[in-house]
Q: What sequence folds into this?
C-alpha cells in the first residue's frame, strides 16, 4: 500500500459558481480558477498522483491549457484514475478535509461522496469527506478562499 497527500486552495470571488466535490452549492461567491475551481477534486487528484509517484496535478493539467477551461474537475479525476490504472495501481481509500468558513456544507457531503465515487469508479464506502471551519482565522476565516486536503491509499501492482 502507498499513501499520497494533496492540498489545494482557491480564491472566493463574485460571479462564479461554488462547486465542491462535484456538487454545485448555492452561495454568493464561487471559486476563481481556470477549471471549475473544485478544491476537493484537485486535492484528491494530487493525493492519487502523489501515491502513484507520477508528479502533481499542474504537470498534467496546466492552468493555461485551453482543454481544461471551465471544465468539471470530475473529468480531471476520471483522467487521473485512468492514468494510475494503466500502471496497475488500484485506489483503495480517499479521505478529504475541506476547510471553509461559509456556507454550511453538511447537507451536501453525501452527494459529494457519490460524485467522487462515480468519477473514480469506486464504492462510496471508500470515500470520506469531512468539513471544518477555520474558526474565523486567516484567509479562510475572512472568507477569502476555500482549502482542501486529501489523503489517498493506493494498492501497488502485485509482483
Ligand atoms: Mg486547484
A:
Amino acid at each position: 500500500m502507498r499513501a499520497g497527500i494533496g492540498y489545494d486552495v482557491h480564491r472566493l470571488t463574485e460571479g462564479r459558481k461554488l462547486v465542491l466535490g462535484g456538487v454545485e452549492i448555492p452561495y454568493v461567491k464561487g471559486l476563481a480558477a481556470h477549471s471549475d475551481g473544485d478544491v476537493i477534486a484537485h486535492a484528491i487528484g494530487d493525493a492519487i498522483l502523489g501515491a502513484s509517484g507520477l508528479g502533481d496535478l499542474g504537470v498534467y493539467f496546466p492552468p493555461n491549457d485551453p482543454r481544461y477551461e471551465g471544465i468539471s474537475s470530475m473529468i480531471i479525476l476520471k483522467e487521473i484514475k485512468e492514468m494510475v490504472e494503466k500502471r496497475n495501481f488500484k485506489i483503495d481509500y480517499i479521505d478529504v478535509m475541506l476547510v471553509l468558513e461559509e456556507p454550511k456544507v453538511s447537507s451536501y457531503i453525501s452527494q459529494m461522496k457519490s460524485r467522487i465515487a462515480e468519477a473514480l469508479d469506486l464504492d462510496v464506502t471508500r470515500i470520506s469527506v469531512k468539513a471544518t471551519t477555520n474558526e474565523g482565522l486567516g484567509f479562510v476565516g475572512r472568507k477569502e478562499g476555500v482549502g482542501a486536503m486529501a489523503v489517498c491509499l493506493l494498492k501497488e501492482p502485485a509482483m
Q: What stands out?
A: The chain has one domain: 2-155.
